[in-house]
Amino acid sequence: MQRLGPRLVAAIGRQEWLDRPSYRLEHVLTLLLNGLGGARDRVTNALNGVWLGHPVHPPLASLASGALGTTVALDALNTLPVRRSANSDDTTRLATYALGVGIAASLGSAVTGVSDWQHTHRQERRVGMVHGAVNSVATLLYLQSWRDRRRGRRGRGVALSGIGYAITAAGSYLGGALVFGSGVGVDRSGERLTTPAWTPVLPASALNGKPVRVEVDGVGLVVCQSGPGEVSAFGEFCPHLAAPMADGWVDRGRIVCPWHGSRFALDNGEVLRGPSASPLPRYEARLVDGVIEVRGEEVAK
Q1: Buried b / exposed e across 137-149, counting CB within 10 Å, b at 16+?
Q2: CA distance 288 to 301
Q3: Which residues belong to any copy of the Rieske domain (predicted)?
Q4: Do residues 225 and 250 lie in contact, with contact meaning Cβ atoms separated by under 8 Å?
Q5: What is the rounded CA–CA span in Å between residue 263 and residue 234?
């Protein structure tokens, strides 16, 4: 697996034929979200995990995996000769309940996962497409397993959930490659500035209404005007997918990511609109004799 896994992920990432269906799916999702009107931002923020401070998909996926693993373990326990007693009925019911929880968590994981996936690109988008398709097949098997168990066809239900769990394991490997290999869903705002001393970085006259990139001790920042006679300093990259914030813009008290439209408050860097779930690092900044100075202690949120 140490060699086969990365090769498989790389091979999937090269499948350009996946681009057409993936972008069609994204367009459908965009139309559905735009149809929500004024509730769009609230819904997308909830799905992206703005309220949680990080994406919602990983904890839901963990809950699904745990519940489904419990189902498989209880099914295996119920096959042991020592369990063939009156207690086996209780174990069977618990397995069915755990399967129901796993299905519900899987559906929630799918919805939040698609919300995260629609902002990926190229190789990550292709791997994410296959990841979602594989997990969808597994979820369908779990649904049929639950139906079979409820109708008394326990043997087939057990077999289907076992097959589904094996497929889930394969899908989880692809998900792990997206997170740990490509950084999808992690904070990618970059290195933090730790220099505690006030450091002059730019004449105030150089501000042109947009964020301007500066560098202090090898760490990139962006500075911008946040009000009359006021300036703000932020991390160089958007936490979502490391978009350069110097290419973004300032709009009504918000700094906007140039790639996917995440919006952050100028006064504290908090997320006002996703897909970013993590705040934009903000640093203290001031004007001294027409020169912008910053220091590296991140402003407490």
Answers
A1: bbbebbbbbbebb
A2: 24
A3: 198-294
A4: yes
A5: 13
3-state secondary structure of 151: coil
Mean pLDDT score, 244-262: 94
**Ramachandran quadrant class, 287 (left: phi over 0; alpha: psi -120 to 50; beta: rest):** beta
Per-residue pLDDT tens over the stretch 30-46: 999 989 998 999 999 99
pTM summary value: 0.85
| Residue 58 tokens, joined | 């990983």
Per-residue pLDDT of 57-91, as tens digits, reads 999 999 999 999 999 999 998 887 655 555 667 88
**Tokens 């923020």 sit at which residue?**
45
How far is Cα 158 from Cα 296, in angstroms, rounded to an integer?
A: 57
Of 199, 193, 196, nearest in space to 219 by CA = 193
According to the model, what pLDDT value does residue 185 have? Answer: 87
pLDDT band at 300 (very low <50, low <70, confident <90, very high): very low
Place of tokens 């504290």: 268
Q: Cα separation of 243 and 115, whole Å?
A: 18
Q: Where are the beta strands (DSSP E) in 123-281?
A: 199-203, 212-216, 219-227, 230-235, 249-251, 254-256, 263-265, 271-273
Q: If we measure between CA atoms, which residue out of 114, 24, 12, 102 comes closest to residue 63? A: 102
Residue 226 pLDDT exceeds 70: yes
Would you list the DSSP string of 58-115?
A: HHHHHHHHHHHHHHHHHHHHHTSGGG-STHHHHHHHHHHHHHHHHHHHHHHHHHHHHH
List beta partners, residue 271. Answer: 264
